[in-house]
């Protein structure tokens, strides 16, 4: 089925359910608060804008094990939630996904930004089997990611702060978040099978903190890069730690491992380096604190 144009100006909802593939070549739009639902039993290819007005939601679905959702044009709502659920891959090519509401992307295969497409929204939730790769100029305020079987989780973002409510990487790969702005961890970040956890908070407000139930769990390496300090005092269980901090603030880690291997800590911000571990500590690299900062 090819949709050449749907313009719903009556305030109602727009629903299309096709037994077979679905392609849009013209805009699909609703006025304020009208929802849009596009479902295909096959691949869904969005070649023209999909726009829900006001709090209207957008729901995209492609059922079947070989069914993809291909975002080749922008999908947006003013403030409504946007969801995409594919039987295989969710791929942002030339199209963005934008809303001030939440975004939920589920792929039984992968979730990725293969072209210039990016995501802007409140809470971004992703679920994948073969990896999540979102390395464009995303601007979401919160993130929760789940991946199983194989592949990595990777997010590049700008927000101050970016709140990570949880990351579960069960496929043996790594979990990497690079945010321009602070990172606030309020849930568990885990990487099974010794997968690495890499957290970078850049920019003038680039701190990394844990609060509430926030913690990091991996038998592999936790690598952190910050500008204004790191306070990781949750119930962390990491096997290896490497940290870099610049400009200002302290580096602090509370952890349980036997041993915890520290491959390096570099704090050039004038603050202190503090590691408290339940278990032995094995130092294999340099621990430094410039400007007379204490090492504890």
Using only C-alpha atoms, the radius of gyration works out to 21 Å
Strand proportion, as a percent range, falls in over 45%
Largest sheet: 32 strands, parallel
Range of helix content: under 10%
Number of helices: 0
Low-confidence stretches: none
**Structural class label:** mainly beta
Structural overview:
There is one protein chain. The chain has strands spanning 2-3, 6-8, 14-18, 22-24, 28-32, 36-40, 44-46, 50-53, 58-62, 69-71, 75-77, 82-86, 90-92, 97-98, 103-107, 111-113, 119-128, 132-147, 153-158, 162-169, 175-180, 183-185, 188-191, 197-202, 208-210, 215-226, 230-245, 251-256, 260-267, 273-278, 281-283, 287-289. It is mainly beta. It has a 32-stranded parallel beta sheet that branches. The model has no long low-confidence stretch (mean pLDDT 98). The protein contains no helices and 32 strands.
Topology overview:
Layout lengths: L1 E2 L2 E3 L5 E5 L3 E3 L3 E5 L3 E5 L3 E3 L3 E4 L4 E5 L6 E3 L3 E3 L4 E5 L3 E3 L4 E2 L4 E5 L3 E3 L5 E10 L3 E16 L5 E6 L3 E8 L5 E6 L2 E3 L2 E4 L5 E6 L5 E3 L4 E12 L3 E16 L5 E6 L3 E8 L5 E6 L2 E3 L3 E3 L7
Parallel strand pairs: 1-4, 2-5, 3-6, 4-7, 5-8, 6-9, 7-10, 8-11, 9-12, 10-13, 11-14, 12-15, 13-16, 14-17, 15-17, 16-18, 17-18, 18-19, 18-20, 19-21, 20-22, 20-23, 21-24, 22-25, 23-26, 24-26, 25-27, 26-27, 27-28, 27-29, 28-30, 29-31, 29-32
């Amino acid at each position: 089925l090819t949709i050449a144009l749907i313009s719903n100006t009556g305030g109602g909802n727009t629903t299309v359910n096709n037994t077979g593939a679905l392609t849009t070549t013209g805009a699909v739009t609703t006025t304020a608060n009208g929802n849009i639902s596009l479902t295909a039993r096959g691949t869904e290819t969005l070649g023209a804008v999909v726009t829900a007005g006001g709090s209207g939601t957008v729901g995209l679905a492609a059922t079947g094990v070989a069914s993809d959702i291909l975002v080749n044009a922008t999908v947006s709502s003013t403030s409504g939630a946007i969801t995409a659920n594919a039987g295989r891959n969710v791929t942002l090519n030339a199209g963005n996904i934008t809303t001030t509401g939440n975004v939920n992307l589920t792929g039984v295969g992968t979730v990725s930004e293969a072209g210039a497409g990016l995501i802007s929204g409140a809470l971004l939730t992703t679920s994948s089997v073969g990896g999540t790769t979102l390395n464009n100029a995303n601007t979401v305020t919160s993130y929760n990611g789940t991946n199983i079987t194989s592949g990595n989780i990777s997010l590049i973002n700008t927000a101050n702060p970016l709140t990570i409510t949880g990351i579960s990487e069960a496929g043996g790969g790594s979990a990497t978040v690079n945010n321009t702005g602070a990172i606030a961890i309020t849930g568990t970040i885990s990487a099974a099978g010794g997968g690495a956890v890499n957290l970078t908070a850049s920019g003038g407000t680039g701190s990394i903190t844990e609060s509430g139930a926030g913690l990091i769990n991996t038998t592999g390496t936790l690598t952190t890069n910050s500008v204004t300090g790191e306070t990781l005092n949750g119930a962390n269980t990491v096997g290896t730690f490497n940290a870099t901090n610049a400009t200002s603030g302290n580096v602090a880690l509370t952890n349980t491992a036997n041993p915890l291997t520290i491959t390096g800590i570099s704090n050039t911000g004038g603050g202190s380096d503090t590691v408290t571990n339940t278990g032995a500590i094995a130092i294999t690299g340099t621990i430094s604190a410039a400007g007379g900062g204490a090492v504890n």
